[in-house]
Amino acid sequence: MAAPQDDMFSFCVEPTKVSNYVEVKFIDKIKGKGLFAKKAIKKGDTIFVERPLVSAQFLWNSLYKYKACEYCLRALETAEDNARRLTGIPGLSLPHPELCSVCPEMHQACPQCQVMYCSIECRQSAADQYHRTLCLGSSQDDPDHPINKLKDAWRSMHYPPETTSIMLMARMVATIKQVPDKGRWQKFFSQFCSRATNEEEEIAHKLLGEKFQGQLTLLRTLFATALYDDQLSRWFTPVGFCSLFSLVGTNGQGIGTSSLSKWVHACDALELTSQQREQLDFFIDQLYKDIEKETGDFLNCEGSGLFLLQSSCNHSCIPNAEASFPNNNFLLHLSAIGDINPGEEICISYLDCCQRDRSRHSRHKILRENYLFVCSCPKCVSQMDELDLTSDEEEGEAEGETEGDDMEDEMTDV
Ligand SMILES: [Zn+2]
Ligand SMILES: [Zn+2]
């Protein structure tokens, strides 16, 4: 049974305002739910701001010293420290340091395990929701602790898509274990499962692939050793664990935060003489060149989260909305990238800009492998005839692209 509409807005910053603006409607059995405009929305408008039910930084990202708040993923390095690390230039200093929004004096460590938070509020929220269950205390660096074994196993396997994260699953379990209003949270999580059990098995199978069967069993065993709970026994069975996987794999939304990019945006907004502007832009351009040389494209703290309302937003290759994280934390802003009429469906693209310009064939390959569906948006439907005439040459080209994609995936994790 679907929960009342209002529940879908529970994690929005202004739920009442948002519910006057948009609604979630059932479309059909294949597409499931969709998000629709109730009023005219102008290009550039923020449609809603939503925080995730659970989120977690990717394990590789934190291992490689991208420091983020354990709760809200806010980047914890100052823009200057961030720039120094990413360029590998220890003496680098940024102009306009006052535009950096990071406040190291506000940061708080968990007194037991020393993981860092951006504020006392985040530390409290994490402790109340899941951290009391997941805190490793003095075993933080003990490789034999069950949670560390689970993390280690996860890092040693490479699971597509990148948004799938074992720690999201762990935080879901920990949340249900420790919150007083378990029923309410279970209902929230159940909003994400819109598929029949047999279909879920098929998805998990597609997601993990045949060769990962042994690894899946290992993960489930480690997951159960670390987190088993009688009330949640169904999530620890082979079928239940698969469906948890398929839930996180199909609904996980990538989150990226960066104190440096926030500083750059603040610089862009400065009122300067044209000479000062030229100098500052030159400095920033050079900075990004130095970063590219040293670190490549990996600038952000990266993780993923489960967003209740946003998860009802379907994919289109010609989207009218996009998600971003302008607050340097896990708050997702959905904004209109075109005018949207009342009654129109609001869609986002699960692909990035470069991927969107690829052939329909490779777009579908990426979507199928990462999001487990075939796109039927107007752009893809209009190209349907083309696909039927796909030549061997195009197939070859698509294969080549796929190899590139795999490499990109691996690099993103590192
Ligand atoms: Zn925080
Ligand atoms: Zn702790």
UniProtKB/TrEMBL annotation:
<keyword id="KW-0808">Transferase</keyword>
<feature type="domain" description="SET">
    <location>
        <begin position="20"/>
        <end position="351"/>
    </location>
</feature>
<dbReference type="GO" id="GO:0045638">
    <property type="term" value="P:negative regulation of myeloid cell differentiation"/>
</dbReference>
<dbReference type="GO" id="GO:0005737">
    <property type="term" value="C:cytoplasm"/>
</dbReference>
<keyword id="KW-0963">Cytoplasm</keyword>
<feature type="region of interest" description="Disordered">
    <location>
        <begin position="389"/>
        <end position="414"/>
    </location>
</feature>
<keyword id="KW-0479">Metal-binding</keyword>
<dbReference type="GO" id="GO:0045814">
    <property type="term" value="P:negative regulation of gene expression, epigenetic"/>
</dbReference>
<dbReference type="GO" id="GO:0140943">
    <property type="term" value="F:histone H4K20 trimethyltransferase activity"/>
</dbReference>
<dbReference type="GO" id="GO:0140955">
    <property type="term" value="F:histone H3K36 trimethyltransferase activity"/>
</dbReference>
<protein>
    <recommendedName>
        <fullName>Protein-lysine N-trimethyltransferase SMYD5</fullName>
        <ecNumber>2.1.1.359</ecNumber>
        <ecNumber>2.1.1.372</ecNumber>
    </recommendedName>
</protein>
<dbReference type="GO" id="GO:0060216">
    <property type="term" value="P:definitive hemopoiesis"/>
</dbReference>
<dbReference type="InterPro" id="IPR001214">
    <property type="entry name" value="SET_dom"/>
</dbReference>
<keyword id="KW-0863">Zinc-finger</keyword>
<keyword id="KW-0862">Zinc</keyword>
<dbReference type="Pfam" id="PF00856">
    <property type="entry name" value="SET"/>
</dbReference>
<dbReference type="GO" id="GO:0032259">
    <property type="term" value="P:methylation"/>
</dbReference>
<dbReference type="InterPro" id="IPR044422">
    <property type="entry name" value="SMYD5_SET"/>
</dbReference>
<keyword id="KW-0949">S-adenosyl-L-methionine</keyword>
<keyword id="KW-0489">Methyltransferase</keyword>
<dbReference type="GO" id="GO:0008270">
    <property type="term" value="F:zinc ion binding"/>
</dbReference>
<dbReference type="GO" id="GO:0060215">
    <property type="term" value="P:primitive hemopoiesis"/>
</dbReference>
<dbReference type="InterPro" id="IPR046341">
    <property type="entry name" value="SET_dom_sf"/>
</dbReference>
